[in-house]
Design a protein that fits this description.
It holds the Pfam family HTH_WhiA. This protein has two domains: about 190 residues, Homing endonucleases (Endonuclease I-creI, Roll), CATH 3.10.28; about 70 residues, no CATH class. About 60% of the residues lie in helices and about 15% in strands.
Length: about 300
Amino acid sequence: MSFTIKVKEELLTLHRFEKSELSALIKMSGSLGLSMGGLSLSLTTENAKIARHIYELIVEFYQVKSDIRHHQKTNLKKNRVYTVSIDEKVEEILADLHLADSFFGIETGIDPRILEEDEASRAYLRGAFLASGTIKDPESGRYQLEISSVYSDHAQDLANLMQHFLLDAKTIERKKGVVTYLQRAEDIIDFLILVEAKQAIEEFESVKVLREARNDLNRANNAEMANIARTVTASMKTINNIVKIMDTIGLGGLPVELQEVAYVRIQNPDYSIQQIADALKTPLTKSGVNHRLRKINKIADELDNL
């Protein structure tokens, strides 16, 4: 089961009955038609539980029993599509939810009264996500929440609604409409808090913590490997210079304080600076060892100029 479906099914278990949630569901998945009795309203979804939820909302608020049908999609996914059809009180429902425009179509934006009330706004966001929301699985490596809208003004209203709750929401045009989206993990968690998907929050946060721990470990490993590579490179340069000195003036030609460091380095090419310091008969700090190795390298460079 995808993370998106888990979130939607958790939201359905809340058994909330709020008109602003129904308003979002109708706005984003509804279409108007004409029947013998006047206007008809159809809402489509690929989730049977969401179709049942819409049915229950209509009964709760308007005492109208809808008809639920389904058919199989003809594309490769072959998902079932469920249609909730309403043939009674459609004009009353649209008027009550402030969804009807002047031509008795469905308004494309969000009713300002919803934007003014926090509880109504949360319920609207819940309905919008149920209708056309998706969240990338947090294990996928990229955080993304999207809600698709047919109309750009509705997508922008959704972004404004999220921004009211301090979420960094943006919109982008796609081939099939306009998408309102969140990309930061913290914003997605806050969205889940707003719509009250508590189990999803726990799962998302636990995955986020594990991913961050893995990333921190990888960064530490990469830094360690880089340090090792730098140490090996410096070590090989010094060893080559010591060999050059041995082949020309001999190690005995070095000042006494450099000879022991040179012997330890060439006999132990894998030693770190600290290990070289620990191996010397006369105690020396890491900076002291480095200073002497630099002197050895300088002497070797001077030999090239002779």
